[in-house]
Amino acid sequence: MKRLLNILTVVILAITLAAPAHAQTDKQKKAAQKAQEIKALVDSKNFVFQANYMYPMGGGQRFLTSPYDITIAKDTVTSFLPYFGVAYNNAGYNNNNDAGIKFTSTKFDYTVNDLKKGGYRIFIKPNDVPGNVQMYLDVYFNGYANLSINSVNRQSIRFDGVVKDRPKTKN
Question: What's the 3-state SS for 43-112?
């Protein structure tokens, strides 16, 4: 009877210890798969940054309820983002002096560097947009991203959001 109790204890202990180890490997596999997907998106230069929060220099965090994004393709960068902050003279990106950060660029620099703690820093500089705009997009392996936008005509602003695949266009 004592021997049966010892065997039963060992079996229960083995099952209890093996289950979390298996769950941890599943999490690691999913994280590695997500990191591969993010790397493929960044390398393909064909993705969308969808902003969820904005952080103006002069104010607090704001949750974005509408779909604001930057679409990056091999030949085009399209920005449709809101702006809150100080705008200096001649700050519009288009003819109607819209208050947002809205433009389409076909001549831009695109540089990718690795971040020290994992992820990528993407530098985007549209050359055909007024205001000397510079964008720094930090993309992490879990899909989250931070976008900082600097311009000579406006205060800097930062956005938090996610990076995902571009939706397929219907022909």
Answer: HHCCEEEEEEEEEECCCCCEEEEEEEEEEECCCCEEEEECCCCCECCCCCCCCCCCCCEEEEECCEEEEE
